[in-house]
Amino acid sequence: MTGAGLRIGLGVDAHAFGDGVPLVLGGVTIDHPRGLVGHSDGDVIAHALTDALLGAAGLADIGALFPSDDERYRGADSLALLTGAYAQVRAAGYVLVNADCVVIGQEPRVAPHREEMRRRLAGALGVEEGAVNVRATTTDRLGFTGRGEQDRLNRALAGSRLTVYSGTGHCPHWEEPERFAADVVAFVRSVDAP
Ligand SMILES: [Zn+2]
User: Fold this and answer.
1) How far is the CA of 59 from the centre of ligand 1 (A)?
2) Which of 3, 50, 69, 116 is deepest in the core (most CB within 10 A)?
3) Ligand 1 mean position, distance from CA 15 (Å)
4) Average pLDDT, the chain
């Protein structure tokens, strides 16, 4: 395969912790005092992976595919959304090569659940488990600022990318530990590529 058939997509997502909701990460329900609040089940890893796959194939983002004001997706299983989005990616002529997911947050510990997350995400995509990686990092208790302030949140998200890909340290805008972010890079290749 030449590089010409290979495409890269980035996906970023963040949700706030909240009481009274289960914590679902990478398709795994984790025993934890708080969960991630979202229109669906708030699974940031599944959402960021979905977005990275759609982006690599040149398709619209997850919000366009599964609108958050659509009642059909209230409490939805994000792995099912991932499966649906990947079907569109394949219909566009691409298959996943590999995806690298980085979870950013102080809690919970991801390592004990990492292999199960890889299994569930790969299962939702129908790909080899080795094609989906899940890793985690903390922010030294620095978090997003400006909860509810879109402009500042956007800057924080841009910062998360810098943190993940440059490895240069922490974004100065991160002052709240409350939000959980996931950042994914996914590679797809054209099915017709040699
Ligand atoms: Zn999300």
Assistant:
1) 17
2) 50
3) 6
4) 78
Å from CA of 38 to ligand 1 middle: 7
Q: How far is the CA of 33 from the centre of ligand 1 (A)?
A: 20
Measured in degrees and rounded to the nearest 5, phi and psi for residue 92 equal: -80, 0
Find the 117 Cα to ligand 1 centroid distance in Å: 16
Q: Is the pLDDT of residue 87 over 80?
A: yes
Instruction: Indicate if the pLDDT at residue 170 is higher than 70.
Output: no
With 90 as the cut, is the pLDDT of residue 95 above it? yes
| Burial group, residue 77, by CB count within 10 angstroms (0-12, 13-18, 19+) | middle
Task: Count how many domains the chain has.
Answer: 1
How many angstroms is it from 6 CA to the middle of ligand 1? 26
Q: What is the pLDDT of residue 45?
A: 94
Query: Which of 74-88, 129-143, 145-159 has the highest average model confidence (pLDDT)?
Result: 74-88
Range of the domain at 179: 3-190
Q: How far is ligand 1, taken at its centre, from the CA of residue 1, in Å? A: 33
Q: From ligand 1's centre to the CA of 154, what distance in Å? A: 14
Sign for the pseudo-dihedral over CA of 52, 83, 81, 35: negative
Confidence check: pLDDT of 16 > 80? yes
